[in-house]
Every structure is written in structure tokens, then in C-alpha cells.
Specification:
The complex is a heterotrimer of chains A (185), B (144) and C (179). Chain A is 75% helix and 0% strand. The relative contact order of chain A is 0.05. In chain C, 74% of the residues lie in helices and 0% in strands. Chain C is elongated, with a radius of gyration of 30 Å. In chain C, 39% of the residues are buried. The chains are: A mainly alpha (185), B mainly alpha (144), C mainly alpha (179). Chains in contact: A-B, A-C, B-C. The interface between A and C is large, with 95 and 82 residues.
Chain lengths: 185, 144, 179
């Protein structure tokens, strides 16, 4: 059992524990803090799985932006959640358990984690993005080369999505809170 | 939070390195993990930290919302404009190779320019969202 | 049994944890009433999908897909860059939709006074019933005020496009009465 496997195992178990706490807690300010912790744990997991770009993005986004937004929202709305009705809880658990069982059954066919002969790793795109990229784009960071070079059109769409979401937030919350309800037809 | 001396001093010490790190991540995205998105969000984190410690009004005075609106649109325009420029130079949309004499050099320049556009947009939008959320409910009837 | 423990479990543990996180997020979305909790459940769901993709792109002993150059890079095993690119996009889009969802929740709270879904829906039904009662009362008053109006069922000055139902009801009634 190498240290990588142990770290992998530990981080995943902690992730599940934090997710359970996120679902169960009704006092919402600690929940905001736990989302920051969740993001940190997943960023560590991404670093372990040889994805530093993704880890950098997840850490900056999760700890820097999302946590602050959740805190601001809890400050503007209610900070406590009402308890879940028992009927809803039972139905939710039933649906979730069934779906989870089906997914676990399907996962038994998946190629083993970390193997080098999976369909993902033997696809010819791997050669294109890692070897041919040296001659076509010649940029050491292959993730940036793929993101802005080979898949640049998707990144343009993504930038437009960020812009549109920001526009939406500005339209929704850009003006101060109205005091009268009657002009909100 | 201005009264908390430790928070204020540490924030004053650490915000400039965060800003420089954001610039580093932006322009070294070709050689190390990084790129436009990471740099934009790190820059926004620095400004959000400033806003949390010293107040949203101080952050608004430092980076006015009008500049953010211009910055957000400018980033998308830079990205799309690069595509249009490559079309004007005779290639396809976003075919960076036609930007210079050498196709590989053109790819380098294209990558740098579009990542800069992405970084500007992401930073502006994240800071603008923070302003709008943090300034809500305190001042009534205030226009952005 | 030992083959299961040493072969299957390490090989599939990542995916089982992904499924567990997915189901926790799914349960939070469908069972909790609080709108912000639903958003948090959605975030947990999203992150589990990220872990799925990054796990699929990993090889044992792989390093980050940043070409180091020189003779060492020929023998190095790199992780696949494509899932990382997809997840980078997905993370940024995820935070954008979360921010927009939170803005909507703030406005909902300001309009309804609550962020619990059942209270918001109940307030909506109350408002809808009140509006229907008001419309029925108004059409009754308009019909009582002008009993023999020629030219079919014009409801008077306030005719909205939304009130077409009301308009049709009046029109048929007038025509039936004239027959």
C-alpha cells in the first residue's frame, strides 16, 4: 500500500464525511464554512491525481468565491433551515438508494482506476495532445494548449457563460433593495 | 473588521503577493499550471479579501464598478476579436497560426492573448458579483 | 474474497466514493426544502462528477501533464490532459450558475420572506387563488353593470391580453343570451 493509495483513500473518506455533514446540518453558517473545507479536500485530491491546474482552479474558486457568496447569502436570508419532513426523507432515501445501487452495479464494469490500458488512455487523442502538441503548439503546459488551442472555441463559449452569469447577477441584484412591493409588478 | 489589528496587518502584508501571484499565474500559464481562469479567480480573491477586511466601500473606491463592467466586456471582446483577427488574416476562426510568419509562434501569441482576455473577464465578473452581494441590504435604492 | 479486497476495491474505490457523493448531493436536492441547501447539494453533485473525470484520467505513477522537456520527459508517464480541460471548464461554469442561483434566492427571499420551497409555493397558491377570486368578482360586477351591451362581450376599458379566458367567457354568455 503506497502512500499515494493511502492518501487517496483518506481524502475520499473525509470528502464523504464532510458531504454528509453538509447534508445534515441545519445551522447554515457552519455549512458555508464546510463548503470551503469540501473544496479544499477536493483540491488536495486533484493534486494527488496529477491535475494541478484543476486543483488551483478548484481551490481558488471554492475557498475564495463560493464560500464568500454563501456567507453573504446566509447573511441576507435566513441562517437556519427547517427540519425535513419524514415523508420527504423516506422518499428521498428510497430513490437515492435505488439509484445508488444501480450505479454501483454499473460501476463493476468500469476499467480499474489507474490502469494504463483503459479506453481513455489508449485513445489516439492522447498521442495528439501530448506528443504532436510539441510540434504544433510547442507549449509545455498541455492543459493550456488544449484549453486555448485545440479546444479554443469551447473556451470562448465558457467565457461567454461567465459573462452572462455575471450579467444576470448584476441585473437581479444590481439595484438596491426596493422598499415598496407595489412597483414589483 | 478594521479594528482587528492582526487581520488588518496580515491582510496588508498578504494582498500584494496575492496580486503578483495572480499576474504570475496568468502569464506563466504556458510553462506551469495556470492560465486565465486561475489568475482571474486569484485576483478576485485578493480584492474580496480587501473588501472583507476594510469594507466594501473601500474596495469599491479602489476598483470602481464601472471599470469592472468595462473589463468584463473587454475580455470577451479580446477573445472574440482574436478570432476575427485570424479570419481577417486569412485563416479560420481562432486559427492562431496565421497571426505571425511562423505558425508555432502564432500559436504562442494567440494563447497568450486569449488567456489574457479570459483572465480579465473572470476577474471582473467575480469581483462584480462580490460587490453586488456584499453591498445588498445595507444601502437602499442605490444604483450600481 | 482476497481478490475482491486487493483487486476490485482499490480499483473501484474512487468510483464508489463518487457514487456516494453523487447520491448525497442528489438526496439533498430532492429531499431538503431550503433552496440554498438544494444549491449546496447540487455543488456536491458537481464535485463528484469532477472527481470521476479526474480519476478516469489518472495512471498509477503519473505526473502532471506538463512536459518538462529534456531526456526525462520521454520516459515520463503523464496524466491525460483532456479530462482536466473539461473539468476546468465545468468548475468555472459551476461557480457561475451557483452565483446566479444565489442571486435568485436572495430575490426570492426579499419577495416572499422565506427560502423554504414549500412556504414559497404556498404563498404562490394563495396569491393565485386571491387573483382568481378578484377576477371572478370583477367580471360579475361588469356584467351586472351593463346587461344588454351590443357587439359581444367587450369587458370595458381594462382588457388585458392575459384575461382572454375572461373575455371568452363573457362573449359566449352574451351570444347565448341573445339567441
Amino acid at each position: 500500500m503506497s502512500i499515494e493509495i493511502l492518501l487517496n483513500f483518506g481524502l475520499l473518506v473525509f470528502l464523504v464525511a464532510v458531504a454528509l455533514a453538509l447534508a445534515g446540518m441545519r445551522h447554515l453558517f457552519p455549512v458555508a464554512m464546510l463548503t470551503g473545507l469540501y473544496s479544499l479536500l477536493s483540491a488536495s485530491l486533484f493534486t494527488l491525481l496529477a491535475a494541478p491546474d484543476v486543483a488551483l482552479t478548484e481551490a481558488a474558486v471554492g475557498a475564495g468565491v463560493t464560500t464568500v457568496l454563501f456567507l453573504a447569502t446566509f447573511g441576507l436570508t435566513r441562517a437556519r433551515e427547517k427540519p425535513v419532513k419524514t415523508s420527504r426523507r423516506a422518499i428521498g432515501l428510497a430513490v437515492t438508494a435505488t439509484t445508488g445501487a444501480i450505479l454501483v452495479y454499473a460501476s463493476l464494469d468500469m476499467p480499474r482506476f489507474g490502469a494504463a490500458d483503459t479506453p481513455v488512455q489508449t485513445h489516439p487523442l492522447r498521442h495528439k495532445y501530448l506528443v504532436a502538441e510539441q510540434h504544433e503548439i510547442d507549449v509545455p503546459n498541455t492543459v493550456t494548449a488544449v484549453l486555448a488551442g485545440y479546444r479554443g472555441y469551447d473556451t470562448l463559449g465558457e467565457t461567454a457563460v461567465v459573462f452572462t452569469a455575471g450579467l444576470g447577477v448584476l441585473i437581479l441584484l444590481g439595484r438596491g433593495r426596493r422598499t415598496k412591493r407595489s412597483d414589483e409588478a | 473588521m478594521r479594528e482587528h489589528t492582526v487581520l488588518r496587518v496580515v491582510a496588508q502584508l498578504i494582498i500584494p503577493p496575492i496580486l503578483i501571484f495572480a499576474l504570475y499565474v496568468q502569464f506563466h500559464g504556458d510553462y506551469s499550471p495556470g492560465g486565465g481562469f486561475q489568475a482571474g479567480v486569484i485576483l478576485a480573491s485578493a480584492i474580496i479579501l480587501y473588501g472583507l477586511i476594510f469594507g466594501v466601500e473601500a474596495a469599491r473606491a479602489a476598483i470602481p464598478p464601472r471599470a469592472l463592467r468595462i473589463g468584463a466586456s473587454l475580455g470577451v471582446l479580446i477573445y472574440g476579436g482574436t478570432g476575427v483577427a485570424t479570419m481577417a488574416a486569412g485563416g479560420n476562426f481562432l486559427e492562431y497560426g496565421v497571426l505571425t510568419h511562423d505558425p508555432v509562434h502564432g500559436q504562442h501569441y494567440g494563447l497568450l492573448i486569449v488567456e489574457f482576455g479570459v483572465g480579465v473577464t473572470v476577474a471582473s465578473i467575480m469581483i462584480a458579483i462580490f460587490y453586488v452581494f456584499a453591498g445588498r441590504g445595507r444601502v437602499k435604492g442605490r444604483e450600481e | 474474497m482476497s481478490a475482491f479486497l486487493t483487486g476490485t476495491v482499490p480499483g473501484l474505490f474512487n468510483y464508489w466514493v463518487v457514487i456516494a457523493l453523487m447520491m448525497i448531493g442528489f438526496y439533498t436536492v430532492i429531499a431538503h426544502d431550503n433552496l440554498v441547501k438544494k444549491l449546496i447539494g447540487l455543488n456536491v453533485f458537481q464535485t463528484s462528477v469532477f472527481i470521476l473525470y479526474i480519476s478516469m484520467g489518472y495512471i498509477h505513477g503519473a505526473t502532471a501533464p506538463i512536459l518538462t522537456g529534456g531526456p526525462a520527459s520521454d520516459h515520463a508517464v503523464y496524466a491525460h490532459p483532456l479530462p482536466q480541460v473539461l473539468i476546468l471548464t465545468a468548475i468555472v461554469v459551476g461557480v457561475s450558475t451557483t452565483a446566479l442561483g444565489l442571486a435568485l434566492i436572495v430575490r426570492i427571499h426579499e419577495a416572499y420572506g422565506s427560502t423554504e420551497e414549500d412556504e414559497v409555493l404556498a404563498a404562490d397558491f394563495v396569491t393565485q387563488e386571491a387573483e382568481q377570486a378578484k377576477e371572478a368578482a370583477r367580471s360579475r360586477a361588469a356584467k351586472a353593470a351593463e346587461p344588454h351591451a351590443p357587439g359581444g362581450g367587450d369587458d370595458g376599458a381594462e382588457h388585458d391580453h392575459e384575461r382572454d379566458q375572461d373575455h371568452d367567457y363573457n362573449y359566449d354568455h352574451e351570444r347565448d343570451r341573445r339567441r
